[in-house]
Amino acid sequence: MKCKQVKEEFVLVYGEDQDGGQLRVAIQQHVTDCPDCAAQAEHTRRFVTLVREHCRREAPSGLRRRILTILSRRLGR
After folding, report:
1. Which pLDDT score is estimated for 17?
2. Which residues contact 41 (CB under 8 A, 6 or more apart)?
3. What pTM value is reported for the model?
4. Which of 2, 4, 67, 71 could pair with 11 as two cysteines, CB 3.0-4.6 Å apart?
5. Distance (Å, rounded) from C-alpha 77 to C-alpha 73?
6. Mean pLDDT of successive 10-residue segments in the chain (77 residues)?
7. CB of 66 within 8 A of CB of 11?
8. Buried/exposed 23-54: b ≥16 CB within 10 Å, e otherwise
9. CA of 71: how far to CAs of 5, 10, 22, 33, in Å?
């Protein structure tokens, strides 16, 4: 995977409660070898954790997906 693709997928993978399957594995492999993406992954994990801790109500699934998609695009630059 390339850095741009990895960064576009961070929020979608780390923002989901599911394991993310092959996509998560591919991202983890890339992050292991790329310090820039590793730093971004850690930032994304912290962000997702903070949101989960402070936002107790569950957003409707459609809204949640749209928010995650927008965040992913903005973080991927």
Report:
1. 56
2. 10, 14, 27, 31
3. 0.60
4. 71
5. 6
6. 84 65 85 92 86 78 86 76
7. no
8. bbebbeebbeebeebeebbeebeebbeeeeee
9. 14, 9, 21, 24
